Amino acid sequence: MTDNTQNSAKMIDNSGNFSRRGEIFYHSEALSKELVETFGGHHMTPARRSAARLIIEMPTDIEGNERIDYITSALDNNETIVSETQRDVVIGILEDYEVLQGLFESYIEGVDETTLQGKALRLEDGQQIPGDLGEDNTQSPWSENPPIPAPRIDDLIKAFSTKGEGAQGVGLETAMIVGAVTLAKLKTTPYHDAAVYKQAVFAKNFLIPVCSIVGLDNLESELNDEVDIITGRNIGDGMDGSDLSNDIDPLIDEVDRVESLHFGPKDSVDPERFNFAMNNINQIFSRLLGKPDLRPAVETTSPHNTLFEVGTVTLQSGSKVEARARGKGRGSYLKKLLRRIGYYEPHSQPLKDEGELHPIDLYGMVVIAEDDTQMADAYVEAVVNALNDENITPYPSPGRDNECFVIKGSPEFQENIRRAVLERIPDADMELFSFKDSGRDFTDAKITGFSETGDKRVPFAPFEMQFSTPDARLVARTGKKAAHFFFKLRKVYGDLVSMTDETADAIIDIWQRKQDYFTSPEDGSKEDHLTNQSRERVVHFKEKALDRRKSLLKRVREMARRALNGI
Q: Is residue 223 within 8 Å of residue 183, measured between CB atoms?
């Protein structure tokens, strides 16, 4: 552990006392600023950084004219804000944030106040769950299945879309900044505090879906992981005396043990903590496909726990494909263990044997080919290498009997792969393969198995390698029925979540804006990136600020006149 982490090894709870939540010692403001820089990366500009600082430091109970004065004074005294354009961006982000806060308050009002979830969302920050839910109420919303109330998809998408009736046009930079700040709060708030439940609902129902749409995968994963860890702890505490209550700490300890072996100590800021995992990822790509050239997606010197890499792989044919890789987060890992032991009963799967306790996708990789033809060629090459390489052991994911090679697509796509594999390996065991017709609009293939690491402490790296195309990934981001975030929500909430055609179109709008946002190379163009709705809010804020200044100036002049008259 570095000195930076040791020096930040204490945090102050709501009462002003030093306390431990159970996951990390840290002061929320300091961590917020670190995480904004981490996930903002080179997209942070002086104006965005100033807006983030104000979101972090502004008193939570400030509103109305007092809020206008606070923001105006901060901008007047900020030497990094040197143009009216920068000033507009700061105000735009702050006004966007106020829109999100208002939408979340409206969401809370729509949750039935007689339910555990509704009661918890109406508690004050600092109150305890379940202790403050009622004299006779010992149950917790965390123990509900699911623990988070269903999102309102149409309202969520309208918040960030610029198209259609009621669109709020909240900026993507605001989502990124608020996501990092919320992550810091999740990491530092005691997990029985009512505030952390509200932060978890806000993250799950507002921030995580938009992160999924625009490709902020690292931030999406971190937010999900924190919520899942907090959920696991509260589930265990909420079922006092049960087997799960007794098992939750050993389960979390087991998750930490495995994760630390692969991805380094929890909440470490040592940039070398991911070296073992990155070497494993390079080995898997090399053994199955070719030469990888990957780099971490965000800086590794801040206390985040998930590894994401981006880059390319040069195939044996000499052509290149895009590649992504990630390590499984602690929260996702814990959730899978809870599911394996039967907690999430509607979706639980029976264990085939003791070895099925741990997930196969500890390492997740994606290969992005130009089209279905290149994808099929690359996939066949990887299949052949997986069957022939002594350091690779194909192995089915939990829930599958034998299938280590899963192919989805049109009948023609499936047949091309089947034929190509048999041409290379005539006696290939086809029971290891699963073929599924998903039509011509979506093709997908994956391999699951183990790769030898060469390390006696951790001899194998469980992995899942998925093969896709830009078109298929776009469907996974924005498709009405196939969007990944919506697919996952439907698995949890079923018919409680739905999406209109108008909302589906609005998702495309959000994704298209992301292309402009993430590809603007110069700070100047980034600084000027506000939606029309944000600009309207900026104009309105400035009008109120000007009226406020005129009123104050009039008051000063009146006081001066009275003073002169009294001489």
A: yes
DSSP H/E element including 315: strand 308-315
φ and ψ of 127, to 5 deg: -70, 160
Q: What is the pTM of this model?
A: 0.87
> Pick from 330, 332, 321, 325: which is nearest to 310 by CA?
325
Residue 86 Ramachandran class (φ > 0 left, ψ -120 to 50 alpha, else beta): alpha
Question: Cα separation of 413 and 421, whole Å?
Answer: 13
Rounded Cα distance between 295 and 281, Å, is 11
Q: Which two tokens stand for residue 34?
A: 């670190």
**The two structure tokens encoding residue 128:** 């305890």
In three-state secondary structure terms, 201 is helix
Q: Residue 501 carries which side chain, given as an amino acid letter? A: D
Q: How far apart are CA 370 and CA 375, in angstroms?
A: 7
Q: What share of the chain is helix, strand, coil (3-state, %, to 5)?
A: 55, 10, 30
Digit-by-digit pLDDT tens for the chain (567 residues) are: 333 333 333 232 333 333 333 344 457 899 999 999 999 887 888 999 999 999 999 998 899 999 999 999 999 999 999 999 999 999 999 999 999 999 999 999 999 999 999 999 999 999 999 888 876 566 789 988 889 999 999 999 999 999 888 999 999 999 999 999 999 999 999 989 999 999 999 999 999 999 999 889 999 999 999 999 999 888 877 555 455 556 778 888 889 999 999 999 988 889 899 999 999 999 999 999 999 999 999 888 888 888 999 999 999 889 999 999 999 999 989 888 887 776 665 433 333 333 445 678 899 999 999 999 999 999 999 999 999 999 999 999 877 888 999 999 889 999 999 999 999 999 999 999 999 887 656 788 999 999 999 999 999 999 999 999 988 888 777 776 667 888 888 888 888 898 888 898 899 889 888 766 665 545 555 566 789 999 999 999 999 999 888 887 777 777 777 777 776
Beta strands 392-394 and 308-315: pairing type? unpaired
Render 137-159 in DSSP notation, one character per residue. ----GGGSSSSSPPP-HHHHHHH
Structure token digits, residue 191:
């997990």
CB-count burial class (<10 Å; 0-12, 13-18, 19+) for 253: exposed
For residue 163, the one-letter residue type is K
Euclidean distance between CA atoms 445 and 94, whole angstroms: 43
Q: Determine the straight-line distance between the first and last CA of the chain, rounded to whole angstroms.
A: 68
